[in-house]
Design goal:
This protein is an alpha/beta fold. Helix 7 crosses helix 11 and helix 10 packs across helix 14. The strands form 2 sheets. It has an 8-stranded mixed β-sheet, sandwiched between helices. Strands 4-3-10-9 form a 4-stranded mixed β-sheet, covered by helices on one side. The longest helix has 20 residues. It is 45% helix and 15% strand. A hairpin with a 2-residue loop joins strand 9 and strand 10. The chain folds into 2 domains: 183 residues, 3-Layer(aba) Sandwich (Rossmann fold), CATH 3.40.50; 161 residues, N-(1-d-carboxylethyl)-l-norvaline Dehydrogenase, domain 2 (Orthogonal Bundle), CATH 1.10.1040.10.
Amino acid sequence: MNDLKPISVLTFGAGAIGTYVGGSLALAGHRVTFIEKTSVAADLREHGLRLDVSIDKHRGAREPLIVPPNSIECVSSLKEAMEHGPFGVAIFAMKSFDTEAALQEIKPFADKMPTILCLQNGVDNEPMIAAVLGAERVLAGTVTCSIARRAAGDIVLEKARGIGIAAGHPLSERLEIALNTASLNAHLCPRAADMKWSKVLANLPGTATAAIVDMSPAEVFAHSGLYDLEMRMAHEALRVMTAQGIHPVDLPKLPVRALALALRMPPFLARPVLAKVVGGGRGGKMPSFYIDLHAGRRTSEVEWLQGTVVRYGEKFGVPTPVNRLLTETLLALVRGEVPIAEFSHQPEKLIRLSTSGRNM
């Protein structure tokens, strides 16, 4: 397919992923409308976007790329966004815990909504979208880059990887071309379930544990007890995937099959490999779970990662005690039910809980 005509894009969220993807599409000549909170939308209308993608040598941008305010539309409601339509595609680029609220806003406009490309973490967002719009208007995707948000509309690319798109949808090939003309390194993935679960598996190591014990992922993997905890967590996820007939697949510049293979290797072989991959895989930044917890946010995507393993484990009869412990413990910290200092730099407390079978 050689359809290179510009696409009109509606982007839910102008956080790290939304700014990176939507801003790149705008720079490539596509018409992009962002939906954000009123204060953020006003900021974007005044200042535009700033994309520091200098780490991506293929883009050849030594200085941050600027998307001027007049190159994008920024609104604070879907009703207002519809005045800028119709749209060829919508992108869900917000956190998974915001999906339900977005869908409630979408329901009155469901007949006017385009296909939604879902770039969110976890595997439950696509079914939720399908329940409102129908399966034919949902396209699964995943982002494997590491992106940090400095301020509203201001991001820095910390690891340049790419975007996976599920093959087989009428829009799949056209979006692959559009994203690649925007230098986003998009690739089609044959099976949506394999793609989404592989991203879950890649996101698990060194995330919840790091947030709970207030240590970096590299420190987590350097600690023998925490390393064992991480391995048990990942093996639970692999067993849940196997029970569903889902297989790890490589994603854009993210070797998930090698990760799955390393998880099955003897510890003395796997540990240095995993420590290097997990410690450096996020471009040196702390996991979002850690950032959200220490910023005082009362929500966490742990329910859509470790929590997903727990829910599907229950459905398919696979025990997932470590994922359950990490989910419940982090949520207790996030909600203020347990002081953040409870486990801070005290990994032995968490390890004892995991071996005793007790949950928070």
